[in-house]
Fold this sequence. Notes:
Layout: E1 7-14, H1 18-29, E2 34-38, H2 45-48, E3 64-65, E4 68-69, H3 81-95, E5 99-101, E6 105-110, E7 116-120, E8 123-132, E9 139-140, E10 154-157, E11 171-175, H4 179-190, E12 195-198, E13 208-209, E14 212-213, H5 214-220, H6 256-261, E15 265-267, E16 270-274, E17 277-280, H7 284-309, E18 331-333, H8 334-337, E19 339-344, E20 348-349, E21 355-356, E22 368-369, E23 372-373, E24 378-380, H9 397-415
Parallel strand pairs: 1-2, 1-8, 2-5, 6-21, 8-24, 10-19, 11-12, 11-19, 12-15
Antiparallel strand pairs: 3-4, 6-7, 7-8, 9-20, 13-14, 16-17, 17-18, 22-23
Amino acid sequence: xxxxxxxxxxVIVVGGGQAGVSTSYWLxxxxxxxxxxxxxxxxxxxxTARWDNFCLVTPxxxxxxxxxxxxxxxxDGFMKRDEIVAYVQAFVRKVDPPIREGVAVTxxxxxxxxxxAISTSDGDYTADEIVVASGGYHTPxxxxxxxxxxxxxxxxxxxxxRNPDQLPEGAVLVVGSGQSGCQIAEDLHLAGRKVxxxxxxxxxxxxxxxxxxxxxxxxxxxxxxxxVDQHPLREGVRxxxxxxxTGRDGGRxxxxxxxxxxxxxxxxxxxxxxxxxxxxxxxxAASLAFADRTYNGINAAIDRHIAETGVDAPPPSVYExxxxxxxxxxxxxxxxxDISSVVWCIGFAPDFRWLDxxxxxxxxxxxxxxxxxxxxxxxxxxxxxxxxxGSGRFGAVGRDAEHVVATIAERLxxxxxxxxxxx
Length: 423
């Protein structure tokens, strides 16, 4: 009995979020046959891995998925979680991608005769091209130190946090001060919970400055169009922690010093738990100072832009600290603190183990130029700073997808010039 050949497509897209659906949009425009595999449901992360009060930190006008720009009533506002879900779901319906939900890709390898063999939870497939559109945030990071904490302490990762009522009574330790950590700490603080925050080396920026959203100023200055190879840090910018700020309640700064003045307890980086005590690095003052320097530095760049262009704007200002740590606190007795829960907000690790193709650099990260890898037939979409600041966001992921699909179309035309494939 002959074994049936695996189902073949010109392109297989792995991941059904906004990156994968954007890729499908451009593939459909070019008439290129393809499939999108999504191990859960399309764009599920926005509804399943965000807290109740989550909102965008960039204004709605920056939401510009292909063929689906934001057209709501508040372009300068910040969509809340349910609005984001509705926006992305409408995009999926509009594109109507050939998506197979609930299908996980378990392995992809190069075939000796060309193209790729793809194993999935739904069987085997082959393809001429693979687009990895699953992003870079796959595995929640929780340190092994967490195993030392008493079993009575509730522990969640940021993707599991929903609201303050979800946690047991008592104080909460939030670990990490990136966007998620600061916003979750604020969510708990506003709800009246006692919060202890382990502060990392994350930068911050103003929400509004000199009469406008800082994002609007930076857009005018061309920051969001700067390709990664022109950034002062080059590819090193991909390692940077995002600036903390919020779009909550119409948008405002997040000032950890103000939170401390209001009763939030701040510490340096959490390093260990030993003999009933949490141990912290003595870097709180330095971390707060770094965040403030970044804040003032961005504002100073806006000042220069205003001076150079002659734009009429309110006068400049410089942030002055409203609170200074009285002393570094290297340790905290867990029982005496009344901490009953910990929310880990230290990010995610990528997991590309299923992709058995030599497309990774010495650090184990995809090596590519604007999403196109050096191995013909493998592309990436939706990674942070894949090409510009907006590559992993609604603002530019569609443009990156268009570029990748154009490259794919050229390669398919060269491989199959006589088949009449629409490219």
